[in-house]
Write a structure and sequence with these properties.
By secondary structure, the protein is α+β, with helices and mostly antiparallel strands. It has two domains: 113 residues, no CATH class; 95 residues, no CATH class. It has six helices and 18 strands. The longest helix has 10 residues. It is globular.
């Protein structure tokens, strides 16, 4: 525990440990059967809460980058291993699951593992130090969203939406786009106040009572989305996109902890 606390202190953060139970499992952002990670807040500000069962999962800090305020955490339970990037982004601390296909051991490699393939491809010609900036010649980033310039995008003007939110099924505050155009994707039904997402056949298989008794919102899963103008978020500085940009989410949905998180619009 003391070694963990030192690592978090080097990053500039506080950490608290607790026993994982049903209640804590329901309230945390990143959860598995043997670990829950979250950012909480008290009178002194934000802190990390790490919850584990009594039969403790082993935790190892693989790397700390104090200047970036990031650390890479490994959880190990028998042969099962998971990696998490914990750090600070603009105004708040965050936790992100790293896809298991990327057995990284350094913070910078974990940051790259969270980038979708389209972003990595666009950044190939950039110098290494420019690739971790929130904005570079290849793309703009705001939180978990990447925006890649798409000057040749064909946009139907009558289908442009205004002040439209970007959101994922994992919840969180929406990123609101001044202008947004979308097409394609799968029709899904999302239940208000929960993370339940049903395909059209699944929704139609529900009883009439469940369909009418719940508040369902019709949305598109994993559509292609283009945005232009200002993108606002309560926890991030507003970005201005001069011209159409295609939207890509980071890859944490490919990690086991976040496998049920999808792009909804």
């Amino acid at each position: 525990m003391e070694l963990m606390e030192r690592a978090f202190k080097r990053m500039g953060a506080r950490v608290t440990f607790a026993e994982l139970n049903t209640r804590s499992r329901a309230g945390n952002r990143i959860v598995s059967e043997d670990l829950a990670l979250d950012v909480r807040e008290d009178g002194e500000g934000e802190y990390f809460l790490i919850s584990r069962p009594a039969s403790s999962t082993e935790l190892i800090v693989l790397d700390v980058q104090a200047e970036l305020k990031h650390l890479l955490l490994l959880s190990r339970n028998g042969t099962e291993k998971h990696r998490y990037l914990l750090g600070h982004d603009e105004r708040h601390w965050f936790v992100a699951g790293i896809p298991e296909r990327n057995p990284v051991s350094r913070v910078r490699d974990a940051m790259n593992a969270l980038k979708p393939e389209a972003v990595l491809e666009n950044e190939r010609g950039l110098r290494s130090k420019l690739r971790q900036r929130r904005s570079n010649a290849a793309r703009v980033r705001q939180g978990e969203w990447f925006f890649i310039p798409a000057p040749h995008a064909h946009v139907e003007k009558f289908m442009i939406l205004h002040n439209e939110p970007l959101v994922r099924s994992g919840g969180g505050k929406p990123h609101v786009c001044e202008e947004l155009y979308r097409f394609g994707g799968e029709t899904v039904y999302v239940k208000y106040g929960s993370r339940q997402v049903l395909s059209e056949p699944q929704y139609r298989a529900l009883s009439e009572g469940k369909r009418t008794g719940g508040r369902w919102r019709l949305m598109r899963r994993n559509p292609r989305v283009f945005v232009r103008g200002r993108v606002r978020h309560l926890d991030h500085k507003t970005v201005f996109l001069d011209g159409w940009h295609e939207v890509f989410s980071n890859t944490e949905n490919l990690s086991q902890a976040m496998r049920n998180v999808v792009f909804l619009d």
